[in-house]
Amino acid sequence: SRTPVTVTITGAGGQIGYATMFRIASGAMLGADQPVRLRLLEIPQGMRGAEGAALELADCAFPLLAGVELSDDPGAAFDGANLAMLIGSRPRTAGMERGDLLSANGAIFGPQGRAIGERAADDVRVIVVGNPANTNALIAQQHAPDVPADRFTALTRLDHNRAVGLLAAEAGAPVSDVDGITIWGNHSATQYPDLSDATIAGRAALDVVDADWARGAYIDRVAKRGAEIIEVRGGSSVASAANAAIDHVRDWVLGTGERRTSAAVVSRGEYGVPEGLVSSFPVRSTGGAWEVVEGLAVDAFSRERIGASVAELVSERDAVRELGLLG
Ligand code: NAI
């Protein structure tokens, strides 16, 4: 049988961690013939939650689950990790200044990045879910200079999946008919869900749905979907966020084929996005590496929207650099 893959989940005592680990252990992420070993990282206050989840994992008797280990030490948790899912963070709370938010996360993602650099497996792949996800990924990446930069990514797949679902609903088409949507930029209110190159059953999406809707209400609805979920459900997106993180890793590791998706990856300067920023792009994976889909036409409207989101990423990067959080 195959060697288990070691998957480290941070924030394992929290909501998204809980919604993620059972599906990973069932084979939904890496396939029905790939055993997994889970490493759950928490801070002391979150440890009981992670312990409880580990008890439930045992009670599922998953045939693919080769082991579960808990730790509150990043070095131990990332030792030998093949996949690192960085979910735990310090998200913004009411009245919190940006500097405080970034500092609190620098204190989490700097040490975790360093531990990944020192202890993880040579093939380690990292996805950051905890917000502000793009900049947290940048902080972690900067603390692991010996790990190839393209192994650090942030989650914009939830935004992408929301964009697919909302377009399919508007067009009255099955989601499987939709391709070619891009989420550009930051996982924040400035993100740009772009239908310029999208198709529905092979037809240009902008010929199927109203173009004013596509470049107006649609963008707002996707970007504010998280707030809509909180309003309706009385709690933040959890299962859909976990699902998106699993989609991201599965596509990254197993490949997308010709299908396109979106992921925040370290820019090599594609589409004029400054090199080194962790920004969302149109991507495919050949299995193991994300490739930015190049050569798409970008009109003036899209250029402005992408520019605004990238400007926000630049200002976050400059702020964490000034705070000394890039190592
Ligand atoms: P939660 O508050 O239920 O769980 C977070 C857990 O992380 C807590 O158990 C906490 O103890 C733990 N934690 C905090 N610092 C840690 C550290 N240094 N090491 C290990 N664990 C640590 O939050 P939830 O709902 O699970 O969300 C997690 C994060 O995901 C939040 O930052 C949220 O904003 C973000 N998020 C991102 C999305 C995206 O699309 N990128 C979508 C939805 C949520």
Task: Note down, in words, how this protein is organized.
The chain has 12 helices and 14 strands. The protein is α/β, with parallel strands linked by helices and 327 residues long. It folds into 2 domains: 5-154, 3-Layer(aba) Sandwich (Rossmann fold); 157-315, Alpha-Beta Complex (L-2-Hydroxyisocaproate Dehydrogenase, Chain A, domain 2), CATH 3.90.110. The strands form 3 sheets. The chain has a 9-stranded mixed sheet. A 3-stranded antiparallel sheet has the order 7-10-11. Strand 4, helix 4 and strand 5 form a beta-alpha-beta unit. Helix 4 (98-119) packs across helix 5 and helix 6 (157-171) crosses helix 9. The longest helix has 23 residues, at 300-322. It is globular and about 50 Å long. The chain starts with a strand and ends in a 5-residue tail after the last helix. The mean pLDDT is 97. 1,4-dihydronicotinamide adenine dinucleotide binds at residues 10-11, 13-17, 41-43, 45-46, 49, 87-89, 91, 108, 129-131, 133, 155, 158, 187, 236-238, 241. 1,4-dihydronicotinamide adenine dinucleotide (NAI) binds at residues 10-11, 13-17, 41-43, 45-46, 49, 87-89, 91, 108, 129-131, 133, 155, 158, 187, 236-238, 241.
